[in-house]
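Most newcomers find our protein records easier to grasp once they have seen one. To make this concrete, we reproduce a full record directly below:

===
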Amino acid sequence: MVDLVKFLHNFSLNLDSEEQRVDAERMFEQAVKATSQLVEMKEGGYLGTIASFLISMVIRLAIAKRRDACSRMAKEAVEVFHSLVKLGEGRSFADLSRSACNLAIDLGAAGLTEVAVKVGEGGVVIHRELVEKDRKTYLSDLSDSLYNLAIHLDKIGRTEDAVKVGEEAITLRRELVEKDRKTYLSDLSDSLYNLAVHLHEIGETEEAVKVGEEAITLHRELVEKDRKTYLPYLSGPVNNHALHLENIGRTEEAVKVGEEAVQILRELVKMDSKHTDDLIMSLRNLAIYLRKMDRHDDAGTVEKELSSVRQRRTAIS
């Protein structure tokens, strides 16, 4: 049966011409059915091969925008991964679980976010079991799985779930930073930034401010060590932090943080004009904060710069 599935799958891939497209689709359908039959058999010796087939099938179904079939096949893939873990297949299923998490990212990029969540949730379950077997080796993989799952959950409107998953990712990344700050500090700061955004989305703005402050502190540390690499990643957290501060009435602090965001983006625009839109947004927000503080002269100065930046952008485009 395994050889049959492999033949059908490979044969359908090799039928590339327009005239052969119908035959390729028919062969692929047979491969899908045969793969599902293999899953039902659950033969231990072939589970790794079956999982590889399933990953390939999910990718092809995603490309074809066949959501129902893609979702069903993704669910079967996750079940096979669980079976591999229970059998204790060592690093082979660890590699497959990473493939599942990478697949979830690809599915999300393809707009199949609900399917991505299913695959991502399966990847998290598998990585939890792996961490129980070997925490030192697989803790980073689990934190990455949780981080990506939180992003996908937020995209389908499950933001409260995204917060819970994101908080778990942060707990694990704190542990990793304690052991190797240089390697994992960037991951922790990214997780904190995303959590601040998600907390704000569900109305927990006070908590979002606290988390955002920590994210900025860590980002600043990274910028001090490698300004060119990390400065572009500091502007987002600083901008959002200013917005969150303003939303809870701490407008004076929002002005200071907003001024920092503008300074960062001025520098970034000099390096690359692609940051111009972000500078425009930061200038606009800063002018709003200043006017709320009755600092109208300062707001007017910022608005003049905003107008000038917009004119330069128009001239370039």
